[in-house]
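Action item from last meeting closed. Structure (724 res):
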């Protein structure tokens, strides 16, 4: 049969991504939904002649468009109309998870319910009658354990039968939830008006549109207004009448009444013998017992720090050999190009711009991959949510909301994230001032682009304590971000913090397949960026570091010096060759200094000498405004141009360690500046879009660069006074 579209929908932490990975394996790709930054994951599934494109919808608790994820999920269901939707439900938390199920049923879409984590429910002494639940909901309900693959064949067989019409779509009579006499009467009136005028051309069921208008769903109301202003006015008038009546009689809003009746409907089903408890419902489960230790007020933070330090220790211990191997490969490729291409711009661009630049970034792929693997273990096991829970206590002291924690973690709070989704994650914050303080400080985290920079300089100058320094810089990133947030909350963003509630998913053993997929997804994004954005910027910066070159007069001076050496050292070629190489190096350095980028870097020295930075480092810092990874590629280019002595070859770290402009003190100053100065360009654009003003985006550049400069200058100047 032809390939159809199948969607996976469910609450966060219900095992939706685990099921997606189990169904699609390596046959998946990640992109973004048009016009938004929400991730779109698609994969291919094949079972006999049943071929499907599986779309993993963002995790949502409902279809009310409060967040971008809910908007994306609802728009996909309404506009792309998948042939079947598999609703993944956490069997151990049926009441909460079935709330979304009710909304999906009201949409009258072809639905199959996957009752996931049956093993967890069984461990908690719960026996669930899936057949009886199916009878009450009017759709197939299949028990599964997505992590182990149990029940997946039966689930997909039911999905295929639904697609082929051998199973009936949801029975509207079984999911016709009563919302009380007042709302039900209004719904009848509104539904008749909607049906008579074919509002939205059948995009949604008539009754569902009416419910959403009464719930004051802004996104849907906007759609209705665009379709028919007159009818929209009538419907809104009806909704206002019932809202006023409910406020007068019950002192509550219609959306609260509707939510109460949905949960009442769910409770009514569950009380029909759907769940049987073998023992005390209030006993402590395994996750609860583990949490008594891992989230303990005193032991929890210490364990969290130990886990973080262990990640860095494992990463550096096991990645050293593969990183050296990758660097050796790029060194070999550079040698081939050197040997087989004649001198000229093409050779210079390939060796210095492409291999020296992009190769320096790709050299850290093994380290990045190992770190992402460790982070995936923390995520998939459920421990990362505990980190957020524990950090909430600290965040409140600095005037931030507990939900800010996840934005910081996504941005690289444990290392390896990205500031862009971190900025986007601030949309969940309801307080405008807390949201603004969060999105202005998440770029301080050690994102995946900063990790190679830290690894490079720490490996070159503090190799004996790499894990300790990486751990220290991660802790420092949190401290700087929180102090900066406190300053903002005490000055331009004054206000009281709001309460925080979050869900702690049960602990689970991560699957090897899931860990591999998550690790590769993130690593591939890093590699893809190196092969596209960073490659383009590296070539552009190479051009800026190559042209206009030396004037004919200065070129002539070096030509004459070479001729003199050749004349003097005809009999002793080894000594002469060494002097010729020194001349070539000096000529390359002079040409770089006279280039466009070199002139800018030299001009910046009037200020950056305070932090110990010379002009070549300044060029790299300029490139870092475009993307932080470019710092490494630019350093690789700047410190390779003009280098002809084979003894000077080696990794970028080796070249920096040998260069007279660098020292451990300069490296520490550079680490501080590079870790905290202006966000990359893409992040700045996101800040402008989220804040609704370029003023805040420009402010983020200025204040973060100022903080970075103060820190680096302070360390460098104090270090010089102390004789370091």
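Sequence:
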């Amino acid at each position: 049969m032809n390939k159809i579209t199948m969607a996976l929908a469910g609450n966060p932490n219900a095992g939706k991504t685990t099921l997606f990975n189990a169904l699609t394996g390596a046959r998946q790709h990640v992109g973004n939904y048009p016009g938004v930054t929400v991730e779109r994951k698609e994969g291919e599934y094949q079972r006999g002649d049943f071929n499907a494109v599986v779309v993993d919808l963002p995790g949502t608790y409902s279809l009310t468009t409060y967040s971008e994820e809910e908007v994306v999920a609802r728009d996909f269901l309404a506009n792309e109309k998948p042939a079947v939707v598999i609703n993944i439900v956490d069997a151990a938390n049926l009441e909460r998870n079935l709330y979304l199920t009710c909304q999906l049923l009201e949409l009258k879409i072809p639905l199959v319910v996957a009752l996931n984590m049956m093993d967890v429910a069984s461990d908690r002494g719960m026996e669930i009658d899936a057949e009886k639940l199916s009878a009450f909901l009017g759709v197939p309900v299949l028990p599964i354990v997505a992590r182990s693959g149990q029940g997946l064949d039966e689930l997909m067989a039911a999905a295929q039968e639904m697609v082929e019409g051998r199973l009936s779509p949801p029975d509207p009579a079984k999911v016709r939830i009563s919302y009380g006499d007042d709302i039900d009467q209004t719904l009848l009136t509104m539904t008749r008006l909607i049906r008579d005028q074919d509002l939205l051309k059948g995009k949604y069921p008539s009754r569902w549109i009416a419910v959403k208008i009464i719930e004051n769903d802004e996104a849907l109301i906007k759609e209705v207004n665009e379709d028919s202003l007159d009818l929209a006015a009538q419907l809104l008038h009806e909704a206002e009448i019932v809202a006023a009546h409910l406020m007068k009689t019950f002192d509550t809003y219609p959306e609260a009444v509707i939510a109460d009746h949905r949960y009442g409907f769910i409770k009514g089903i569950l009380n029909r013998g759907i769940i049987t408890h073998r023992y005390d419902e209030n006993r402590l489960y395994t996750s609860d017992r583990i949490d008594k230790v891992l989230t303990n007020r005193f032991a929890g933070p210490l364990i969290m720090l130990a886990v973080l330090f262990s990640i860095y220790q494992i990463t550096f211990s096991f990645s050293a050999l593969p990183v050296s191997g990758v660097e050796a490969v790029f060194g070999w490729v550079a040698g081939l190009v050197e040997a087989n291409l004649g001198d000229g711009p093409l050779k210079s661009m390939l060796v210095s711009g492409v291999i020296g630049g992009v190769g320096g970034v790709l050299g850290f792929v093994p380290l990045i991959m190992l770190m992402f693997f460790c982070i995936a273990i923390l995520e998939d096991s459920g421990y990362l949510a505990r980190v957020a829970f524990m950090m909430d206590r600290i965040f409140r002291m600095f005037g931030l909301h507990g939900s800010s924690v996840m934005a910081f973690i996504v941005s690289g709070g444990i290392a390896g994230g990205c500031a862009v989704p971190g900025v986007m994650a601030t949309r969940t914050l309801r307080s405008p001032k807390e949201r603004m303080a969060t999105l202005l400080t998440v770029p301080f985290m050690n994102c995946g682009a900063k990790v190679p920079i830290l690894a490079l300089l720490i490996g070159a100058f503090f190799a004996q304590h790499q894990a300790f320094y990486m751990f220290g810089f991660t802790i420092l990133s949190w401290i700087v971000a929180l102090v900066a947030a406190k300053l903002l909350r005490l000055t331009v963003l004054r206000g009281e913090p709001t309460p925080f509630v979050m869900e702690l998913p049960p602990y689970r053993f991560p699957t090897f397949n899931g860990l591999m997929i998550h690790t590769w997804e993130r690593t591939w994004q890093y590699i893809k960026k190196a092969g596209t954005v960073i490659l383009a910027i590296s070539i552009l910066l190479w051009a800026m570091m190559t042209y206009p070159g030396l004037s004919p007069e200065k070129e002539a001076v070096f030509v004459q010096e070479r001729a003199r050496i050749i004349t003097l050292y005809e009999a002793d070629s080894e000594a002469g060759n060494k002097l010729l190489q020194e001349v070539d190096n000096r000529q390359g350095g002079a040409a770089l200094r006279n280039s466009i980028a070199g002139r800018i870097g030299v001009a910046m020295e009037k200020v950056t000498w305070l932090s110990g930075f010379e002009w070549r480092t300044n060029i790299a810092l300029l490139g870092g405004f475009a993307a932080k990874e470019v710092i490494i590629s630019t350093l690789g280019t700047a410190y390779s141009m003009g280098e002809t002595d084979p003894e000077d070859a080696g990794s970028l770290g080796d070249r920096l360690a040998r260069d007279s402009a660098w020292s451990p003190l300069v490296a520490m100053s550079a680490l501080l500046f590079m870790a905290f100065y202006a966000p990359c360009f893409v992040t700045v654009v996101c800040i402008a879009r989220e804040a609704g003003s370029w003023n805040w985006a420009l402010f983020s550049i200025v204040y973060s660069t100022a903080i970075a400069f103060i820190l680096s200058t302070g360390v460098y100047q104090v270090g010089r006074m102390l004789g370091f």
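Note appended to the action item: The radius of gyration is 30 Å.
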